[in-house]
Amino acid sequence: MSRPVRVTALFAGLGIATVVVACVSAGVGQFGIPLSDVVASLLHRIGLGPGLADPFAEGTLWQVRFPRVVLALLVGGVLGVSGALMQGLFGNPLAEPAVVGVSAGAAVGASLSIVAGWAFLGAFTTPALGFAGGLLTTLAVYGLSRSRGRSEVVTLILTGVAVNAVASAVIAFLMFSGDQAAREQIVFWQLGSLASARWPYVWSVLPLMAVGVVVSLMLARRLDLLALGERPARHLGVNVEALRTTGIVVVALMVSAAVSYSGIIGFVGLIVPHGVRMVTGPGHRVLVPASLLAGAFLLGVADLAARTLFDYADLPIGILTALVGGPFFFWLLLRTRRRSGGWA
């Protein structure tokens, strides 16, 4: 099968699979709604049908189920695109958004809000502080790693490791300082969940995601040139430092917005770009949009499993992604070792 055919089949398959998962997920729950009713309700919203006769089912779909499904797709898409961007910027197959401290910083902001009991923005207080914490931490990592107007990849990664360690210590201190209810809420937030999804949250994430994806696509050609190496890329006219700065800011904005509502969801940004790259190849003009769809599909499936594996319980979604991502990460390490002939 030729590469154009594989790419077309991948996009078509991911698009159809994501729509199917979204519809199935919207119908599954303690109050089951047939798939035909889910489709009928969707068609009614775009003016192509009479809608549902049961107002309770209609309300369940549009006030509870669809906000969660759409937020899962958005967060998964953001993490997939951010992972592809990070791996392209760093030239490292093991890079993901957490490398630059965005998740740990968001956790610090959210934990501070929970322990202090702040509510100056109402229901948006914890997400807003999570967003601010993730963004500020990422910018701090990037600023601390710069020397003489430049930042090296190794220095950036090591700075991220150090800042992540400090953030983890701050979170532990906040948990120690808070009461039992605050500790439980912080732990649940760190495990990741979409149980509190609402339409206002969706509308908050969507603009930042759209801007981030558009900018990522605009950077795709320069990322392909950067894959040749920093020196060849500079000779071809790429401003490597500006490219990395732009990419890191885009990742910080998108991921901070996503995890501020979902909590920490690991490994999606790591495994999705690699799975897509095996089919499409390394070109970022295809890799970025394909990672968007694949990330949305993966988190949609994970959220469906989180809601349905146990009766009357909502499993933290971060547990499922870690169970899948951990073995994949280990396999990737072994594969990298075999190909390179060692760990260097």
Rounded average pLDDT: 87
Parts with pLDDT < 50 across at least 5 consecutive residues: none
Question: What is the third-level CATH name, the topology?
Answer: ABC transporter involved in vitamin B12 uptake, BtuC
Q: Mind telling me the CATH class? A: Mainly Alpha
Strand content: under 5%
Overall 3D geometry?
globular
Subcellular location: Cell membrane
Main location: membrane
InterPro entries: ABC_BtuC-like, ABC_transptr_permease_BtuC
Transmembrane segments: 66-86, 98-121, 127-144, 156-176, 201-220, 241-274, 313-334
Task: Provide a descriptive summary of the structure in words.
The chain contains 13 helices and two strands; from the N terminus they run αααααββαααααααα. The chain has 344 residues and is mainly alpha-helical. The protein has one domain (3-336): Orthogonal Bundle (ABC transporter involved in vitamin B12 uptake, BtuC). Strand 1 (146-147) and strand 2 (150-151) form a beta hairpin. Helix 3 (55-90) packs across helix 11, helix 4 (102-116) packs across helix 5 and helix 11 (268-280) packs across helix 12 (284-308). Keywords: Cell membrane, Membrane, Transmembrane, Transmembrane helix, Transport.
